[in-house]
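User: Sequence recovery, please. Input:
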């Protein structure tokens, strides 16, 4: 495998890298700080970004930054999520079997959250991933879920995570009542050229690289191919490392990157 050829201890561009070893861009640091405040204040937040910009990775990093003695993260990711399955999924993560009817399950969830906060002094942080796929009924349920004590306070921090189209959709008049409740909106952007280089170097350092593997010109082509999307950076870098190891190249230059893109990734 290419890891031994380049003297690496692990695959540098895999999805299972520990979150505290990830490259932290300025946007990521700002997003994590704002989301931490959202957890404290039990805010309704929306995180959006194009495909491959690291939305789920950001949430994994965020979940690990929160103090587990103060916060409990509840995570759902289901393109066909319905209100009933929403409450069922949350209650199961809290260790309870949900009541059958939606209204009963909703009241049950509110009771369990009150007990969690009152007895264990923990705040729930609910994360719904792939939220751009939710239908209107589920998005409307979000609005009712956040009502508590005559709308005086929210029972939890709620974070919707989805592709950019989610934010565009929420701007429509039909979703005005939901949009008005949003306390915080974060948009994850593509990396610029300098950030792509810093990202690659950070991941190679984590994997134990002792010297530079990609030339500056190779970095240029990786940036152009990926347009700064982390997922595509991971993909092209991994293919280049495989190609380089198979052909005995210690340094990956721009000609090799172009060949990999044209022959394997086009």
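Assistant: Recovered sequence (266 residues):
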């Amino acid at each position: 495998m290419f890891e031994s050829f380049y003297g690496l201890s692990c695959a540098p561009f895999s999805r299972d890298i520990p979150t505290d070893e990830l490259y932290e861009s300025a946007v990521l640091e700002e997003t994590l700080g704002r989301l931490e405040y959202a957890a404290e204040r039990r805010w309704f937040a929306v995180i959006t970004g194009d495909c491959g910009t690291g939305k789920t990775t950001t949430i994994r990093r965020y979940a690990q930054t929160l103090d587990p003695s103060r916060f409990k993260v509840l995570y759902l990711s289901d393109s066909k999520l319905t209100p009933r399955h929403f409450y069922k999924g949350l209650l199961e993560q809290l260790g309870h079997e949900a009541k059958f009817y939606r209204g009963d399950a909703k009241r049950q969830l509110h009771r369990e959250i009150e007990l969690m906060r009152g007895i264990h002094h923990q705040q729930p942080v609910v994360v719904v991933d792939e939220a751009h796929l939710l239908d209107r009924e589920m998005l409307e349920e979000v609005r009712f879920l956040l009502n508590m004590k005559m709308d005086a306070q929210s029972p939890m921090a709620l974070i919707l995570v989805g592709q950019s189209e989610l934010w565009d959709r929420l701007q429509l008049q039909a979703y005005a009542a939901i949009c008005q409740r949003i306390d915080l909106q974060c948009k994850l952007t593509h990396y610029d050229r300098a950030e792509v280089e810093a990202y690659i170097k950070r991941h190679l350092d984590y994997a134990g690289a002792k010297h530079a593997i990609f030339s500056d010109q190779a970095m240029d082509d990786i940036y152009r191919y990926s347009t700064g999307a982390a997922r595509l950076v991971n993909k092209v870098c991994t293919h280049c490392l495989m190609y380089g190891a198979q052909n005995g190249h210690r340094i990956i230059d721009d000609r090799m990157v172009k060949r990999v893109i044209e022959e394997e990734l086009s």
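Strands lie at 44-49, 71-77, 123-129, 157-163, 184-188.
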